[in-house]
Amino acid sequence: MRMVSPRSLTPATCRRAVRHLSVVDPVMRAIIERHGPCRLGIAQDRPVLHALTRALVAQQLSVKAAQTIFTRFLGLFPDNGFPPPSAILAVPDERLREAGLSRPKASYLRDLCSRVLSGDLPLDRLGEMPDEEVLATLTAVKGIGRWTAEMILIFQLRRPDILPVDDVGILRGIQKAYGLRTRPAPARVLRLGEKWRPYRSVASWYIWQSLDSTPA
């Protein structure tokens, strides 16, 4: 399901963000000039459940291994499109294991789908929630941490002002772009990001682009 709220980034908002970042931060302006327009404002067709499931599958795996297992998981469902939570819950653990999911990941996936069906995780209302409420709601699911929730906020809900201070790519990118001797601590990233408000998601996207490692 696609969720768009007045708080979501649009192409017009991204253009305003680029102008703001270029004015307040010369380093960011140089990155923007190298990498061109921000594409965060382009709507995602991928359902949030799809993104969360893929994130659970991908934990502690290489990109290639995660893609292989996720493809096998999708192969468990003959119909086109991503399966609803009821169909996922109907798959026996043995079949999930055969597709490559570990026991913990199968457990996390069942918790995710159960919460969606019970209404504890109202995916259709995430777009209406403030950022912190989205974070609290998503991280209540087994296996979903703050980083995963932040990626949902940025790439699915397209919230404009998220700064994932524990993301390795953000830390590496800031160290490189700002000529720091060591990777910055999260507190330093937050201080640096104050001038990026209210467009820290767009700034994060450009930092990832500077390393060519934007999360998918």
Descriptive notes:
- There is one protein chain.
- The protein is mainly α and 216 residues long.
- The chain folds into two domains: 11-43 and 161-211, Endonuclease Iii, domain 2 (Orthogonal Bundle), CATH 1.10.1670.40; 48-156, Endonuclease III, domain 1 (Orthogonal Bundle), CATH 1.10.340.30.
- It has twelve helices and no strands.
- The longest helix has 16 residues, at 103-118.
- The chain is elongated.
- Residues 1-6 have low confidence and may be disordered.
Mass-distribution shape: elongated
| CATH homologous superfamily designation of the largest domain | Hypothetical protein, domain 2
Mind describing the biggest β-sheet? none
* CATH architecture descriptor text of the largest domain: Orthogonal Bundle
CATH class of the largest domain: Mainly Alpha
Task: Assess the beta-strand content as a share of residues.
Answer: under 5%
CATH T-level fold name of the largest domain:
Endonuclease III, domain 1
Distance between the first and last residues' Cα? 18 Å
> What's the domain count?
2
**What is the percent of helical residues?**
55-70%
Extended strand count: 0
Question: Descriptors for this entry?
Answer:
216 residues, mainly alpha, Endonuclease III, domain 1, 2 domains, 58% helix, 0% strand
